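Second attempt. The first submission of Elongation factor P had a stray character pasted in from the spreadsheet, which I only caught after the job came back as garbage. Lesson logged: always re-copy from the clean sequence file. Corrected sequence (189 aa) follows.
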Amino acid sequence: MSVKATDVRKGHVLEKDGDLLLITEYIHKTPGNLRSIIQIKTKSLINGAAGSMRLSGNDSVDVAFLDRKKTEYLYKDGEGTYIFMDAETYDQFPLAEELIGDKMGFVSPNSTVEVTFHGTTPIGVELPPSVVLEVIEAEAAVKGNSATNVKKNAVVETGMTVKVPMHIGVGEKIKIHTDTGDFLGRANE
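This time the job returned cleanly.
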């Protein structure tokens, strides 16, 4: 679908030369009595390359139609590919590790995840703002360190290492921010 450059915003996905470009930054400038200039920074959803575009207010761009589906994460195969299952049709499909990046450290097997599709091709994973994971390994607390904001390493059920306060122990469920990987607190389950 073709739209004017002034109608796109940060977070939209553009189609250009067979590539899907996520808009990561959008700046609309109107210097003095000149025509408007639109600076867009993008990230390719296909290969991860960063880029930029400079457009005028009259230019048109093609916005990609993306579909999100609820899926279940099943497992990671030996080749570094993650296997998901569509919750409605029970069809299984792979998603390459390069497309997902570090996001799978927040996803445990058999959990529900939204996968973004372009047509019938899966291109990425949408995570909730925070997830609850169980601590399976934690360093021992050192007496006397609890008075300050000292943190220790803890390994959660997905294998990811998170910095947590000294009072968190093995077996506890903790809430983790998916954008930063920061500890948010104990889970209220």
